[in-house]
Amino acid sequence: MSTTLHRRLAATATAVALGATALTACGSQDGGDQADSGPVSLTYWAWAPGMDKVAAIWNKKNPDIKVTVQKQASGDDLVTKIITASKAKKAPDLVQAEYQALPTLVSNDALADISEEVGGIKDEFAPGVWQQTKLGTDAVYAVPQDSGPMMFYYRADLFEEYGLEVPATWEQFAETARALKKKAPDKALTTFSSNDSGLFAGLAQQAGAKWWTVEGQKWKVAIDDPATKKVADFWGGLVKEGAVDNQPMYTPAWNKALNTGKQIAWVSAVWAPGTLTTAAPDTKGKWKMAPLPQWYDTKNVTGSWGGSTTAVTTDSKHKDAAAKFATWLNTDPEALAALVKEGGIYPAATSAQTSGALVEAPDFFANQPGFYTDAAEIAATAAPAYWGPNVNVAYAAFKDEFGKAAKARSDFGASLGRMQDTTVADLKKQGFEVAQ
């Protein structure tokens, strides 16, 4: 995608994702760093816990560049707030932005290209992670902060009790689900949950999906591509035959199923230990983590579920200083250790994934001392993700369509087609050109 295209998207869209009005002006308001004559004060909108404590470390060492953290809500609300502030030319200098939000923010001309300021740190991150900050261009719109490589979690004690093998392929996963049902009809290997779109997106990425790409000057949407259809048909088939549960995650019923062993596995991400600590406290020390099952014997790849970046806005009058802080925050060993300690994140920087606060396994996984070593190896295999300017619309359509299909144990393929149609129609409504 060319920079020209981004400018064009910003100028021609009549309304962009999340209901915010697109900017008619294009191009950065930043005329270069204007901090040469004295100390710089930067404002950083972020939601990660303890970010103010991490910034305090920077401020102590860099008295000429003071960073003030303003705590924000995460998700769509923050994206809308950033776009609104940018339109009024009142955006902060820096923002914490999820990977999937970057195209929406860029198409609204809210984020600056910082490729010249941060290009040298590319090798600090896995290729599939760095790629998400570029949006298919020569530009760089953010520095990766944390990532969510996906993994397979299972009750090691119950796998042993029922004579189950950890599945290396998705075909073996299905066989394991069926075998458990035969041995213990009251239990399920796991559930297919339709209340978290990120899970399905990550599974599709692993299979090779490219949901949003650009052809010439047009967006191309391929949410119903063969890779995604393969994933939808696989899980839809398991739900329809009753081999896995069809209940949503993060509910009291789901927590109870994990805590009592009625569900004995969970397809999740590196942050799962924190969720299990709360959802299934009685199972501490009984779980283990393994790589996701694979679709192809010749590949070793995972998807991503979650993660965020640090971006510099086009409103910032101190682009160089802001990019310098973003680089420090996400590559400096002391900063990364503080992010892990204070914010509980899994850093995107590969050097931090097996050092500092991530040397010892999570307390809940003390029985797997090599947890973070294994996690780092998996993280290095993360597939690229392809996001567009209306991810929120696609995610809402997923929850609606797949929610109904999962509840009725009906065809997931038809739901995927409707998700595709809804996403394309929304792009056209907003004024984007869409390739057929």
The outline comes out as globular
CA radius of gyration: 22 Å
Low-confidence stretches: 1-32
**Ends: how far apart?**
17 Å
What is the count of DSSP helices, taking H or I runs of 4+ residues?
Answer: 17
Mean pLDDT: 90
Helix/strand-derived category reads: alpha+beta
Strand content: 5-15%
Number of strands: 9
Largest sheet features: 7 strands, mixed
Tell me roughly what share of residues is in helical segments. Answer: 40-55%
Helix and strand pattern: HEHEHEHHHEHHHEEHHEHEEHHHHH
Summarize the structure in words.
Strands 1, 2, 3, 4, 7, 8 and 9 form a 7-stranded mixed beta sheet that branches. Strands 5-6 form a two-stranded antiparallel sheet. The protein is of the alpha+beta class. The model is unreliable at 1-32 (pLDDT under 50). The two termini are 17 Å apart. The chain is built from 17 helices and 9 strands. α2 (51-61) packs antiparallel against α14 (333-343), α9 packs across α10 (226-241) and α13 (319-331) crosses α14. It has helices at 3-12, 51-61, 76-87, 102-107, 115-118, 127-130, 156-161, 170-183, 197-207, 226-241, 252-260, 272-279, 319-331, 333-343, 371-379, 391-408, 412-430; strands at 40-46, 65-71, 94-98, 143-155, 212-215, 218-221, 265-269, 287-291, 304-312. A hairpin with a 2-residue loop joins β5 (212-215) and β6.
